[in-house]
Structures are given as structure tokens and as C-alpha cells.
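Per your request, structure below.
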């Protein structure tokens, strides 16, 4: 097994992450003065999705489609076989996927949510439930749009912000058994495991838990679905945390996981570091049902809405996703940022997971009720003080209940995503320093209220305002401490 890459500095004995790659190409960044950042966040309706990237210094919104590709992936772009049907690129990618996941069929799609659209259309009937460890925003929207409902059966420990449980993404097996029995298999469209989990702090799922879920699905004749979008971080945690897997190759863990599910799908914007997605299955009937929808909604079966160049790079990216040296980088950097923040007392999700560092806005902003969107306010404030764009993962990211009332999120998080191989350790230190300043001045931050609230996926386009103009007082305090220029 490869060593996890850290070194201890000679003077302080500090444990420092060590990147096993170097930058070959760079993009210039700008840090606007604080007054301009204040104007930018106001113009964006206090919604970090609506900021222009030119106004952002460190874009930690997501890893989706913004991971750094490797030199080998760029080289592969030129190999692409451009054709509408029967592209050689497709067959190369199909062969790579079949080796990796051991499934018979691969259906390409333009991104993860496109796979969710096809799956929901194929499997969900009105009134049916989809059971999962935890939802992802687009997954839930596709299911509910078709009249289905989502039931989340995460273990109680998974929703505790701070814990020492290694696999907080695990499904509660006892609850799963009783829910299946109570609902009856005909009322369950499918059971879905997302590993790693997105909305609860990038927390992983153990193979043991997936095996138990799979057994229940098989025993009850229920279709099992695995969302592999965040698989690479999850593989790292299985290898480093799950008993019995210390000496198992990443490729063997991947095939074992895939063998437990009828369908595997993924966003290649995350897994594979390109832009695209795909569905895998060995089930003939499911394959035929989904194939028709892919052709209708995505494109012909040998490209499915993806550019063939991206598909060629994906084949390489997937191979790299099985390399421990590659997949360890994000979790190690997430842990580094989490540790830096905690040195300053900033409350975060623990243990540090994959995808990004997750700040606990409920504890950071104890004075702001959930009805005033503390995680949204904190994301806006973090932009204001550092030009750092994080993402609200709390009540704003939830759908309202059927009666129009707010659905308060279990956790109010701000995610500072660490796209693979993009940021340096000095970026991490800068973020920690600015967020620490904000934490000391947290009493200046207030709530948000909607000015314009879309009915579907409101967090993407919703516009809000700062209650009592708290952002102006925050800017003034910042200028007193840092001057005009930063
Ligand atoms: C777990 C999970 N599933 C599905 C998706 C949807 O993928 P995409 O953004 O490519 O539509 C995401 C995206 O963030 C995700 O994290």
C-alpha cells in the first residue's frame, strides 16, 4: 500500500500535506477590494451561485467540473474519435468502465442529474418511495417531480455534526428493514446508496453497510442503485478506515461495491474529473428501458450528450481514480483545512470528510434562526471577507414542504469545496485566517430573507437580502482591521 503523503517539519513537528503533482498551467486570480466584494454579493442577491467568477478569488463552490485534469487526460483529448454513432472513443470508455465496475452495459449521459432523470423516469411511479441514506438536491427533485417521495434512513450518528464515527454516511439497517416491511416492496421504487454523501459533509459509507443494504434489496426483490459520484473520496476512507480493507487494492474494492448494486451511476464532473456522467448495469430489462430515454433526452448511445473529447479524458480519469496517490489528495487537504479552522475554534463537521471542509453555521451563528438561513448568511459573509466562494448546504438548499412551509435542514453547513489538485496550502491558510476573523466578528452577521424565491431548486437562482443591512457593518469592521486594499 502507498504511504499517505505528509511530512513533519523539523522545527515545530507540524504534520504537513505533501502534493504528489505539480502545476503545469495556471490561471490568474483576482482579489477585489472589500467594497467591490460587498457590491458583488449584493448584486448576486446574497447567493454565491449568482456571483460572477471574475469577482471571486478562491472558487470553493464545488468540485463539479472544476477538478484539475492530469496531463495524461489532456493528452487523451486529442485521441478522440469524432463521430455521431459508433465512435471508437465510446468503446474505449466502455471497456474501461467494464473493467472498473464489472457491469455489462454503459449508458452515457451529459452529467449526474441526467442519469437521475433517466433513473427516476424508468423506476418511479407516483406515490412510490425511494429509500436512501441521504438525498442529494437534484436526485430528490427528479423523484418528487414524478410524484415519488424520498425517505432518508441515515443512522442517527450521521446527523451529528461532530462525531468520532468513521462511516457517518451509513444507512440504518434496522430502520431499513422495518421501513421495507411497513411499505411493501411494490411501494418502493428503488433503494439508493450515495457514497460519499454530499449534503452531510462528504461523509463515507462502509462496504459492510452497502453489503447489508444489498442483501435487503435482494431478499425483497427491490432494485438497488449506487450513486458513485463521490466514490473516489469514499474509496480512500474505506482503505484507511474500514477494518479488513487495509491491504485490498482500490480496484478490488470498487468492483466489490459495484457487484452489490443493480445500477451504478455517476457524475463524471466529479468521478473522473471531466464533464459528463453515466449509468451502468448488467440487467437486460433495465438497460433496454433506460436506453430509450438516453437516446431521447441525452443523445445517441455512443455519446449521450458528452463531447467525445471529454469521454476520452474520462477513460483516463477513471483509471486515475483507482490510484491511491491520486485519490488521497482531496481528503488530506480537507483534513488540513478543517484542522486549521479548528485551531481558531471554528465549528466544523467532524470527522473531516471528502469533497470539502464543512463549517457548522448553526453553531457559528447561534443567534440566527433557521428561518433566516444562517448557512446562506455565512456563505455570503465568507465571500465578503475573503473573496472565497463557498456553497450553502442547509435550509436554503431544501425544498419547501407540500403545504409551503419551510423544511428546516438537519444541518446548516457551508461547504468550502476543494476541487482536486486546484488549491495550494497557502490558499488553505488564507481561507482559515479570513474565516477565523469572521468567527471573532460573528455577532455582526445577520439573517437573510428572500426577495425572489424560485419554486424548484431555489438555491440556484433565489435572490435574498441582508436583514438590517448587516453586511455594511461587517465591511466597515473589516476595513478597520485590514484597511481598504484587502
Ligand atoms: C452525490 C451526487 N449525486 C449526483 C450529483 C449530480 O451530478 P451533476 O452535478 O453532474 O448533475 C452530484 C453533484 O454534485 C452529487 O454530489
Amino acid at each position: 500500500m502507498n504511504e499517505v503523503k505528509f511530512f513533519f517539519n523539523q522545527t515545530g513537528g507540524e504534520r504537513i500535506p505533501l502534493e504528489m503533482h505539480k502545476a503545469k498551467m495556471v490561471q490568474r486570480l483576482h482579489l477585489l477590494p472589500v467594497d467591490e466584494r460587498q457590491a458583488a454579493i449584493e448584486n448576486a442577491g446574497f447567493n454565491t451561485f449568482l456571483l460572477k467568477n471574475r469577482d471571486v478569488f478562491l472558487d470553493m463552490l464545488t468540485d463539479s467540473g472544476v477538478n484539475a485534469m492530469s496531463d495524461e487526460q489532456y493528452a487523451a483529448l486529442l485521441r478522440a474519435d469524432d463521430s455521431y454513432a459508433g465512435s471508437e472513443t465510446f468503446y474505449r470508455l466502455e471497456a474501461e468502465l467494464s473493467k472498473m465496475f464489472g457491469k455489462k452495459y454503459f449508458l452515457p449521459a451529459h452529467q449526474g442529474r441526467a442519469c437521475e432523470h433517466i433513473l427516476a423516469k424508468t423506476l418511479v411511479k407516483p406515490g412510490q418511495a425511494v429509500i436512501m441514506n441521504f438525498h442529494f438536491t437534484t436526485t430528490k427533485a427528479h423523484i418528487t417531480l414524478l410524484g415519488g417521495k424520498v425517505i432518508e434512513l441515515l443512522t442517527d450518528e450521521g446527523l451529528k455534526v461532530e462525531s468520532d464515527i468513521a462511516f457517518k454516511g451509513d444507512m440504518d439497517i434496522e430502520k431499513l428493514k422495518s421501513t421495507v416491511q411497513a411499505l411493501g416492496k411494490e411501494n418502493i421504487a428503488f433503494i439508493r446508496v450515495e457514497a460519499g454523501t454530499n449534503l452531510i459533509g462528504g461523509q463515507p459509507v462502509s462496504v459492510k453497510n452497502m453489503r447489508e443494504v444489498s442483501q435487503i434489496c435482494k431478499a425483497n426483490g427491490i432494485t438497488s442503485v449506487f450513486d458513485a459520484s463521490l466514490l473516489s473520496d469514499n474509496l480512500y476512507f474505506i482503505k484507511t478506515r474500514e477494518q479488513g480493507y487495509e491491504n485490498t487494492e482500490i480496484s478490488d474494492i470498487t468492483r466489490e461495491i459495484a457487484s452489490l448494486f443493480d445500477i451504478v451511476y455517476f457524475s463524471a464532473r466529479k468521478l473522473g474529473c471531466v464533464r459528463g456522467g453515466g449509468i451502468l448495469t448488467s440487467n437486460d430489462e433495465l438497460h433496454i428501458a433506460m436506453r430509450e430515454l438516453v437516446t431521447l433526452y441525452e443523445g445517441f448511445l455512443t455519446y449521450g450528450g458528452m463531447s467525445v473529447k471529454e469521454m476520452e479524458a474520462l477513460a483516463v480519469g477513471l483509471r486515475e481514480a483507482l490510484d491511491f496517490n491520486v485519490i488521497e489528495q482531496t481528503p488530506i487537504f480537507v483534513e488540513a483545512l478543517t484542522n486549521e479552522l479548528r485551531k481558531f475554534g471554528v465549528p466544523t463537521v467532524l470527522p473531516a470528510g471528502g469533497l470539502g471542509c464543512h463549517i457548522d453555521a448553526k453553531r457559528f451563528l447561534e443567534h440566527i434562526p433557521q428561518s433566516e438561513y444562517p448557512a446562506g448568511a455565512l456563505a455570503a459573509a465568507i465571500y465578503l471577507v475573503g473573496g472565497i466562494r463557498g456553497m450553502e448546504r442547509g435550509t436554503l438548499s431544501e425544498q419547501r414542504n407540500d403545504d409551503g412551509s419551510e423544511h428546516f435542514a438537519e444541518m446548516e453547513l457551508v461547504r468550502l469545496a476543494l476541487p482536486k489538485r486546484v488549491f495550494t496550502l497557502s490558499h488553505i491558510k488564507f481561507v482559515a485566517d479570513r474565516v477565523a476573523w469572521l468567527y471573532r466578528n460573528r455577532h455582526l452577521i445577520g439573517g437573510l430573507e428572500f426577495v425572489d424565491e424560485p419554486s424548484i431548486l431555489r438555491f440556484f437562482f433565489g435572490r435574498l437580502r441582508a436583514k438590517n443591512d448587516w453586511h455594511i457593518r461587517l465591511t466597515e469592521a473589516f476595513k478597520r482591521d485590514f484597511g481598504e486594499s484587502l
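The domain at 6-63+326-482 is CATH 3.90.1150.10 (Aspartate Aminotransferase, domain 1).

Regards,
D.
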